[in-house]
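Form P-L/3: holo structure prediction, ligand pyridoxal-5'-phosphate.
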Amino acid sequence: MPRPLLATVHHAALRHNLARVRQAAPEARVWAVVKANAYGHGIERVFEALRGADGFALLELDEAERLRALGWRGPILLLEGVFEPRDLETCSRLNLWHAVHCDEQIDWLAMHKTHQPHRVFLKLNSGMNRLGFAPGRYRAAYARLAALPQVEEISHATHFADADGARGIALQQAVFTQATQGLPGERTLCNSAALLRHAGDASSDWVRPGIALYGSSPDYPAHSASDWGLQPAMSLTSRLIGVTHVQAGERVGYGGLFTAQGPMRVGVVACGYADGYPREAPTGTPVLVEGVRTRTLGRVSMDMLAVDLTPVPQAAFGSPVTLWGQGLSIDEVAHAAGTVGYVLMSALAPRVPAVADEG
Ligand SMILES: *Cc1c(COP(=O)(O)O)cnc(C)c1O
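OUTPUT (holo model):
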């Protein structure tokens, strides 16, 4: 029998979340963001459920290649654009649209001998100060691109730094509106947080949700995924591979970080930090055993973690355990560990077998 640990990717939830995202921006087309191997879910495992999107956005050329191999003929956008000149040949061959955020990428396009003109998304740095042209240099970059025979169509893009926070998007949005005023071309602004919290203000031709599609809240704990009407797209499940009894004063796990106050039963789960479960999760991190909510105990090991069986007297060797997913939000687990759902799902380890639940 294989080690009892499994990630299940729920197609019904992915489809539901895509519909939920469309409802938030009914006029916009939707890029399903599938970078980082679909946030750890696996591009091949999510593809059928998300093929109702208008396009897929990602970073790596080999991920774009995998999407084409799955038969996707629609738009694919490289969110960071190309990394070296010869990537432009791959863009021509696979018909990839790409972001242009710096002068080097324009230089490469100008040198590129292509038969198929490119569609590019010119990126404005509207205040995040990560990628993109500064507002004062945006129009010059646009003019350079517009003069190139290698470029067929120019769209406009920016990315918000505080869509999930108190500052919101208004300032950056105003910078974007001004920098792009009067320039022809489609616009794309919103990630999940902007889409769910501010879509009414930031209407655009394309929206770019990632995390919402996977059923995690972009602004937990202000809002939970269920507050946003999202469903978890991945369940990480395991079983108890051991049950041990401890007495008052006995300690559990490396470093003995948990000390029993009285006699109790401790379950040992076949999941640890080498599977992607956060080692930072302290005693008290929520977990389901036999569907009953309980807590982790002590330090997470490489391959195992311990859980309190006090609320689950019926639990025994082989009892099912949910680390996150249906019945237990990944955001709650992440929050307990001092991180966010994005990190947990995208750090799911390659050694964890994964299947799609296509129902
Ligand atoms: C990752 C990414 C997104 C998606 O962000 P979420 O917060 O997951 O919705 C959108 N746009 C860009 C440029 C990104 O890099």
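COMMENT: The mean pLDDT is 97.
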